[in-house]
Amino acid sequence: MADNLPAQVQLASLLAESGRLEEAANMFDSFEELATSASGVVLPISVVLQASWLDSALGDNNRVERRCSRHLEELQKASTQAMLATVPFSMPTPQFLGESNIWPATQTLVASRTLNETAAEIAVLQWTLAMAHIEGGKCVEAVAMLKDLVEAYPESSFRPLVKVWLKAMTGEEITDQPPELDRGILFNDDSDMIDRVKLAAEAAAAAAAEEKAKASEDGAAASGKPADGESGVGTPANDKPADADRPKN
């Protein structure tokens, strides 16, 4: 078990659940030391949160602040480096990569993780740190951290909780939804779209019929023939005298 980190984490969790908080806290501290001393060892966010909750249960809010602040810095630094490592100017020229050019897929994968998974981890650490500030009586720092959370991640699931705490501590209110997602800003009311399309089609059909009738009248006037629907007044057949008007021999 000494070389099995997941097994040690499970043991520490069992110790905490059984009430042996000091022993569990010492084990979590050893995990932190291992991650600090060994290169390439990154503690899962779940381990960091369990250790922080245990510190809060022991009343050591200063340790929670140190732990969360350190991991926040590491996450923000790692996400920035990951994004910069895949931009075009730091990668080989795409024209020389041939069929193995997978830069778009790599960039999409890294951006997706940074915007989703890493953002969620940073948000939960910021929330935990803010609660530690409140428990320690550092309300100014707590308010600043809560504001940073909703400004950096406005769609975070912690937004309703942040709204409650900001209202309680400062009297400041924030919206339930981010401003850019308010109703009526991104979407227009198209409930009458079918009626408007129908009216436009009827108007176009009436205009086409009127134009056709006018063209028919103009063509008839130019050729001397009656337009559609008109009688043949003035034609040679009508000018022929009737039999009663012919002179008798």
How would you sum up the global shape?
Answer: elongated
**Mean pLDDT across every amino acid position:** 75
Instruction: Tell me how many strands there are.
Output: 0
- Helix- and strand-based class? mainly alpha
Distance between the termini: 143 Å
Order of helices and strands: HHHHHHHHH
**Which percent range fits the helix content?**
55-70%
What Rg do the Cα atoms give?
40 Å
Which descriptors would you attach to this protein?
single chain, about 250 residues, mainly alpha, about 65% helix, about 0% strand
Briefly summarize what is shown.
This protein has nine helices and no strands.
Structure write-up:
This protein has 249 residues and is mainly α. The chain is 65% helix and 0% strand. It is built from nine helices and no strands. α1 packs antiparallel against α2. The longest helix has 33 residues.
SSE diagram, text form:
Blueprint: H1 5-17, H2 21-37, H3 45-57, H4 61-84, H5 103-135, H6 139-152, H7 159-170, H8 193-223, H9 236-239
